[in-house]
Design brief:
Layout: E1 2-3, E2 19-27, H1 36-58, H2 63-76, E3 96-102, E4 107-114, H3 120-130, E5 135-137, H4 138-147, H5 155-158, H6 161-171, E6 188-193, E7 199-205, E8 226-229, E9 233-239, H7 241-247, H8 249-260, H9 264-278, E10 282-287, E11 293-297, E12 301-308, E13 311-317
Parallel strand pairs: 4-5
Antiparallel strand pairs: 1-11, 2-6, 2-12, 3-4, 3-7, 6-7, 8-9, 9-10, 10-11, 12-13
Helix pairs in contact: 1-2, 2-3, 7-9, 8-9
The structure holds aspartic acid.
């Protein structure tokens, strides 16, 4: 789905002055699976995230600040699999992953297996800006978070009754089925273009329900779940991470645009077709320096939203229009 640029949203080059696209996960998201209350609460949270990011972009702030702000709102909302509301590991713990990338200089930061940081996306950004590294893991990442003075929370803060129920359901199944039985990937992400023409991407997740053995998905892997490059686009992904890693999804979309001259929708659809051919499901959001905003997903639905100077909109099910 390509988001049309409204006439009043364009500057003299014909591109929207700024653009923000977010997701709250893709998967088997159908009307019959959500109560009206859940549907409304999810839409409200998506809209709040758009509002937070839009306020920054509209006032001339950076794409980097906007994607971080939007993702923080979604991490704080219990409906999504990131921050509060993250899924449980097989052992009943919470291990969160996040990554962020600045398209203006390809600076990037990522963390995996963090257990106490209230907003893992802030930690990813701290790694990018304040450490000499790109990717920190587990105890070391937790330690760095404390050293950076980021807000910490006890395990109960992140845990919700619904996620615990999902873990119990998974554990009651034969072990061969211990792999994301819900096919609902609640990872959150944001991509943005700012008035200066720079793009940025951010992704945050609890991973997959029942994950074990220190499993890491695509979300914190630069080039798989997240990528941003002013020469091409910014991408955030959600889905069965193993396939997104193998397809190098986020970088591959950028590479197709930069070197193959493909349009963003064409590139996103082609890479999602590759994911599907490998057996994977999920979706991506893409923003370009020209102001294009694109979704591509091969699941029944994706929690998503977009904002530009002409307004903002959210959607859940696959048959809802992009705007
Ligand atoms: N991509 C995430 C992972 O594999 C899951 C998700 O998108 O919800 O960890």
């Amino acid at each position: 789905m390509t988001i049309p640029a409204a006439a009043n949203a364009q500057d003299e080059d014909g591109r929207p002055a700024w653009q923000l696209v977010i997701h709250g996960g893709a998967g088997v998201i159908e009307r019959s699976r959500l109560t009206p209350e859940q549907d409304a609460a999810i839409r409200a949270a998506l809209d709040q995230a758009l509002e937070a990011g839009s306020a920054i972009l509209a006032s001339g702030g950076s794409a980097l600040d906007a994607v971080e702000a939007a993702v923080r709102v979604l991490e704080d909302a219990p409906h999504f699999n990131a921050g509060r509301g993250s899924v449980f590991t097989y052992q009943g713990t919470i291990e969160m992953d996040a990554s962020i990338m600045d398209g203006s200089n390809r600076a990037a930061g990522a963390v995996t297996g963090v257990t106490a940081t209230r907003n893992p996306i802030r930690l990813a950004r701290a790694v990018m800006e304040n450490s000499p590294h790109v990717f920190l893991s587990r105890e070391g990442a937790d330690q760095y978070s404390i050293e950076q003075g980021l807000p910490q929370e006890p395990p109960e803060y992140f845990q919700t009754a619904e996620r615990r129920r999902q873990l119990e359901e998974l554990r009651s199944r034969p072990s061969a089925e211990h792999f994301d039985v819900h096919l609902k990937y609640g990872t959150v992400g944001a991509v943005a273009l700012d008035r200066q023409g720079h793009v940025a991407a951010a992704t945050s997740t609890g991973g997959l329900t029942g994950k074990r053995w220190g499993r890491i998905g695509d979300s914190p892997i630069i080039g798989a779940g997240t990528y941003a490059d002013d020469r091409a686009c910014a991408v955030s992904a959600t889905g069965a991470g193993e396939y997104f890693i193998r397809a190098g999804v986020a970088h591959e979309i950028c590479a197709r645009m930069r070197m193959g001259g493909q349009a963003p929708q064409e590139a996103a659809d082609a890479v999602m077709a590759e994911v599907q051919a490998l057996g994977g499901t999920g979706g991506v959001i893409v923003v370009t320096p020209r102001g294009d905003g694109v979704y591509s997903f091969n699941t029944p639905g994706m929690y998503r939203g977009q904002a530009s100077p002409s307004g903002r909109s959210v959607a859940i099910y696959g048959d809802e229009p992009a705007q």
